[in-house]
Amino acid sequence: MLYREAGDFKTSYVEDSQTFPIKFDRYRYYFVLVFAFAIVPFVINDYWVNAIFMPFLIYSIAAIGLNILVGYCGQVSLGTGGFMAVGAYASYKLMTAFPDVNIFFHIIAAGGITALVGVLFGLPSLRIKGFYLAVATLAAQFFLVWLFNRVSWFYNYSASGQINAPERSVFGVEVTGANTEAWATYLFCLVFTVACAIIARNLTRGAQGRKWMAIRDMDIAAEIIGVDPLKAKLSAFAVSSFFVGIAGALFFAVYLGAVEVGEAFGIQKSFLVLFMVIIGGLGSIFGSFAGAAFLVLLPVLLKNTLVGALGWPTDLAAHLEFMIVGALIIVFLIAEPHGLAQLWRVAKEKLRLWPFPH
Amino acid sequence: MPDQLVFAMEVFLNGLMAGVLYALVALGFVLIYKASGIFNYAQGVMALFAALTLVGIMEGQVPFSHLINAVFGTDVHHFGWHMPALVSILLTMAVMVFLAWAVNKLIFNHLVNQEPIILFMATIGLAYFMEGFGDIMWGADIKKLDVGLPQGINIPIDETTYGWFGYGFFIDNLDIVATVIAAILVVALVIFSQYTKQGRAMRAVADDHQAALSVGISLNFIWVMVWSLAGFVALVAGIMWGTKSGVQFSLSLIALKALPVLMLGGFTSIPGAIVGGLIIGVGEKLFEFSVGPLIGGATENWFAYVLALIFLVFRPQGLFGEKIIERV
Questions:
Q1: Lower CB count within 10 Å: N or C terminus of chain A?
Q2: What number of C-beta contacts closer than 8 Å exist between A and B?
Q3: What's the rounded Cα separation, in Å, for the pair B21 and B244?
């Protein structure tokens, strides 16, 4: 009834090529934005922000970044954790080296530094493909984690080997450190998430995104029709790493506050973000959000039901979580290789015809 | 002879031995990849699962005891018997064959004709599932595995080298046994694939699925067989690593170490897996010995990957891989 394009006439090219051409879609998008910016900050408390909202927002950025690389450009990467670590350590070094600059710029600069590192580790993608590349990105993962663990310059020679986020504020409101308010950190992350999503959405539906998709579908054919694989692959690595770096910087500075690199950015993190992308849907920005929400909520729900309601020991619940995540990935790959995003698309198709399917 | 050189020789020998263990894991990857084009990330977890099952059967643990205790409030953990090692190994092998059948029946039969990368991700899911499953079934604590393999320093080598250089090399008996077993395993696999009917069928499937199907080879049977073989290799690797450092979660991480071995040797070559394993084993030990102290140590974590990465840039198909021909 509500969800249809009938009667929604476009009279200009701008209207025709907008991000959400269907009116209901557009209103839903505005509604979500208003809800997230104007209502959620007033009703949340520390538990909700730390357990659900902040991980969801930050992982969404990381998943969008990885989705650009894997879903749009077809270059499988297992180095996400390492690149997040680059973002975290870059923001730490910047925050301590230039304490007067606004943290906002530190985090963007950290993304830029991660993009450079990403391009460096993306260079082999010009020679190798598929599994070989996936394994090659593991080199980035292990090497970077080792580097941040062993070279004490990166953690300012602190005795514990940890990095701790100093207290920084935006417009007089503290967003990092020990005395932050739940709504402030939430809003700070939300701004980055929304900005990243808009940038990613517009990049992927423009010329650059089409080049990436051409490379993904068949790189030799893409080269023949005039897509430069060097530029396309390296730009995908750069943009992807930029987002992942921002996610890493936020993860360290705003969410955790103190980080030990092997624990926070190990290989498990790479897989977690990859799973978000797979479950959410390869090649879909909405899918990145859906996947991140799913994998952030699942452990919380499982923990609350198994440990909280049934009284099982925590380690058993943790093992069960492994099994469920693994099984879900297989089920998704079998039933719907395009993930939650595809389910959403199918639902929308159905809605357009509802209630008269013929 | 200068001390450093003698030490380096010892490191070299120990690297060779470690390389054999990497090669054992890599071998399982190659088997499955050749026959079905699936890059089985779960190989390392299969080794862990096999070792866990072996210990569980030997010790007479009750499977899923933690789960049962949590749900029904009971307190069961052991049947109270000890199985002899050989019987337990046979039973574990039966479990691995069943696992091979189940994996093919439940997962890969539904993913026929999917892209290789989808299959790869499915095996990552399988790895997660089996990790949780193994822990729930047998418990997550570190277990000791002892199937009667010799362990400890090899005295004759120690004495001989002492006579030659005035410094006794430390070579673990277990490593020597592992090398011998790996050699036997490889020879047996080669004989199997070259001279038996099923081996020929396996190679035919590896060559061309459809052609193999059209001359009457059952793909399902071959795949179950190959996964069982890989399960067997995983069991052997699990026994070796488990005896060496206990059965624990880190066992599954050796799968990650086997990946650069594969890249170096080529995904499709059995000799490649062995040579790659040896190069990585020796390379990382020597690098840690010579350069490690200068740059902070623990270089073993990444050396193998970076070596493989640099190597691949010059030879993308690996040492023994088939030449990659691309068509549009």
A1: C
A2: 137
A3: 11
Q: What is the DSSP string of A234-276?
A: HHHHHHHHHHHHHHHHHIIIIIISEE-HHHHSSHHHHHHHHHH
Q: B132: distance to nearest CA of chain A, Å?
A: 4
The tally of CA atoms less than 13 A away on the side-chain side of residue B41 is 23
pTM: 0.86
pLDDT truncated to tens, each residue of chain B (328 aa)? 567 777 787 788 888 888 888 888 888 888 888 777 788 888 888 888 888 888 888 887 777 777 777 777 777 777 777 778 788 888 889 999 999 999 888 888 888 777 777 788 888 889 889 988 888 888 777 777 777 677 777 777 777 777 777 676 777 777 788 888 888 888 888 888 888 898 888 888 877 778 888 998 888 888 888 889 889 988 888 888 888 777 777 777 777 778 888 888 877 777 888 888 888 888 888 888 877 777 766 777 788 888 888 887 787 777 776 676 776 6
Distance CA A352, CA B266 (A): 51
For residue B78, give the DSSP letter. B
- Distance of alpha carbon A177 from alpha carbon A158, whole angstroms: 17
Q: Environment class of residue B58 by beta-carbon count within 10 Å: exposed (0-12), middle (13-18) or buried (19+)?
A: buried
- Token pair for residue A255? 């969410």
Closest residue by Cα to residue B241 from B231, B228, B253, B259: B253
Is the Cβ of B124 closer than 8 Å to some Cβ of chain A? yes
**What are the CA-CA distances from residue A345 to residues B21, B62, B285 (Å)?**
48, 46, 52
Cβ burial A147-156 (10 Å sphere, 16+ → b, else e): bbbbeeebbe
Query: In terms of DSSP bridges, do strands A163-164 and A258-259 run parallel, antiparallel, or are they unpaired?
Result: antiparallel
Q: Is the CB of residue B131 less than 8 Å from the CB of residue B228?
A: no
Distance of CA B294 to the CA centre of its chain: 32
Helices assigned H by DSSP within B74-172: 85-106, 116-138, 155-165
Contact A244, A114 (CB under 8 A): yes
Strands, E assignment, chain A: 163-164, 169-170, 173-174, 258-259
Gap from A60 CA to chain B (nearest CA, Å)? 20
Is A177 in a helix, a strand, or coil? coil
Distance (Å) from the alpha carbon of B72 to chain A's nearest alpha carbon: 11
Residues B296, A128: C-beta atoms closer than 8 Å: no
Residue A90 reports pLDDT greater than 90: yes
**Is the Cβ pair B129, A322 closer than 8 Å?**
yes
The Cα A185–Cα A297 span in angstroms is: 19
What residues contact residue A139 under an 8 Å CB cut-off, 6+ apart?
A79, A121, B260, B302, B305, B306, B308, B309
- Rounded to whole angstroms, the Cα distance separating A332 from A322 reads 15
Q: How many helices (H) and strands (E) does chain B have?
A: 14, 0
* pLDDT number for residue A86: 94
What residues of chain A lie within 8 A of the CB of B259, using their CB? 135, 138
- Map out the domains of chain B as residue ranges: 3-253
Which chain B residues in 130-159 lie under 8 Å from chain A, judged by CB atoms?
130-133, 135-136, 140
Tokens of residue B279, six digits: 């190069």
Q: Measured between CB atoms, which of A132, A142, A326 is closest to B125?
A: A326
What is the phi-psi region of residue A348: left when phi exceeds 0, alpha when psi lies from -120 to 50, beta otherwise? alpha
Q: What average pLDDT does this structure show over A53-78?
A: 92
- Which residue from B277, B210, B273, B281 is spatially nearest to B11, judged by alpha carbons? B281
Residue keyed to tokens 């009703």: A43
Q: Which of residues 4-43 of B touch A (CB under 8 A)?
A: 39
In this predicted structure, the answer to whether residue A179 has a pLDDT above a threshold of 90 is no
